[in-house]
Design a protein that fits this description.
Layout (H helix, E strand, L loop, with lengths): L7 H53 L3 H5 L8 H23 L5 H15 L5 H7 L5 H9 L8
Helix pairs in contact: 1-3, 3-4
């Protein structure tokens, strides 16, 4: 059996390559952690937005649940219209956040369900029609891909 002699330079190169490999693994783990932090921050921002919307109703003496359920009177019709505009902005933002990978799949699936319900609230259609040109075309395509329950009415 012949002994193989390994030079000192070869050992240095091996250690250097192992150091680079370890650094790459560390960077990958840091990137994953950063992605998780970004997802959590986006969820926090969405939650704060919704709390802000509900707080506005509280401050004006209107019941969020009544408005969102469509219990609209002549006195609070403006509030319903404003909520629909806010919902459109929030839904478009959720669409873009998902497209950028800043939303978990389970959150996105839940948002899709609510988007379809809001889109198929026929009272909202005039506002959608007025805003359609101001929305991301891919988002509009998503909305119009839902089964149109208002067309039957």
């Amino acid at each position: 059996m012949k002994k193989v002699k390994v030079s000192f330079d070869t050992w240095i190169q091996l250690l250097g390559m192992l150091g680079v490999l370890g650094g790459l693994v560390f960077v990958g783990l840091e990137m994953q952690q950063t992605q998780n932090i970004a997802l959590a921050e986006q969820q926090q921002t969405r939650m704060q937005t919704w709390i802000g919307i509900v707080n506005v109703f509280t401050e004006t003496g209107l019941d969020w649940q009544d408005i969102i359920a469509g219990n609209v009177t002549e006195e609070n019709d403006f509030a319903y219209s404003n909520v629909t505009h806010q919902l459109l902005w929030a839904m478009e933002n959720d669409f873009i956040q998902n497209k950028l990978g800043l939303m978990s799949e389970s959150s996105w699936q839940a948002r899709l369900v609510s988007m379809e319900i809001i889109y198929n609230t026929c009272r909202n259609r005039p506002i959608f029609a007025a805003r359609i040109g101001m929305l991301d075309p891919e988002f509009v395509q998503l909305l119009t891909s839902f089964t149109d329950e208002c067309a039957a009415e």
